Amino acid sequence: MSLGxxxxxxxxxxxxxTREFYVDFLGFNVDWEHRFEDDLPLYMQVSxxxxxxxxxxxxxxxxxxxxxxxxxxxxxxxxxxxxxxRYKNARPGVQDQPWGSRDMSISDPFGNRLVFxxxxxxx
Length: 123
What we know:
Blueprint: E1 9-11, H1 15-25, E2 29-34, E3 43-48, E4 51-56, E5 67-71, H2 75-84, E6 95-96, E7 102-107, E8 113-117
Parallel strand pairs: 1-4, 5-8
Antiparallel strand pairs: 2-3, 3-4, 6-7, 7-8
């Protein structure tokens, strides 16, 4: 048996804040979006490289305040790219962790925490 890729679902509450944070700031692309009707909650998939996230305004799809760890090849370049955007709600820093990774933690406008991390080398 083998397992496939994971697409976590994060709870979001406002479409414009969602797009500003995930697309404009973090640089994700909108792959698709769905609503059962025009005035109903948004469900969408965004991706950047191999990272795929589902973002949902639907109550019950997930709990606000979730946390994810997302591997990044060059965390310093990504951090520099984000800082240069001068996003009004975040100026993320990179921290060295005692287990050997370098992490950059950013909270979205809905209380979800995304921790971008370098791959941890295991000897």
